[in-house]
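Journal club prep — side note

Before the paper discussion, L.F. wants everyone to see what a predicted structure for a comparable chain looks like in token form. Sequence:
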Amino acid sequence: MTMDLPLSFLHRPAAAGTAQPWLLVLMHGVGSNEDDLFSLAPHVPTNFHVLSLRAPNVMGARAYAWFEFGVTPQGERVINEAQEVASRQTVAQTVAAAATQLGIAPGRVVVGGFSQGGIMALSLLLTQPALLQGAMVMHSRLLPQVLPLLAPAEALQGRQLWLSHGTRDQVIPLANAHAIRSLAQTLPITLRYADYPSAHEIIQQELGEAMAWLQQLAAAG
């Protein structure tokens, strides 16, 4: 089927005949594009539709960002807050439109991302949980700008979070995953945390365990 969505995307349909399909929406890291995480599609359980989105801000040839950022001399990251807000709204609209057009209830929707794409997935889970059942956040961080926007605890009840990171990640250090874990432990969401002896990359073990988590979600739902 043809979908009309606010963002450019690639789509791998769920297997024909799937009675209650799920939807996994993937978001790439800064400077990449929708082809990047679409390479994971062959590993995703076949009862999932897979959508890989392209971020709206152009950085260069086939290079996009959800928002631009800089690093201060003290090492602090400063983001383009207007771009982040606009991207978060557009992602929410895209997820909702895709679910509607595919006939998938929010309770069977998962958003996932790597690095900056993981930031977007986490932010969506925390601020608009009515749109989805869970988030898969890989090698990412929590935006302090999102904390005042947290949904009330009752709205987060029953939501699921996969959180993984590399112990040797030099781009987004492991402490960022620990900060997300600490926050998640104060919320009524079910957290699955794992770290791996890797850098800023998705390794085979991580991918396999994340896909098993997706399968378990779908089986429970």
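L.F.'s comment for the group: The longest strand covers residues 160-166. Keep this in mind when we get to the figures.
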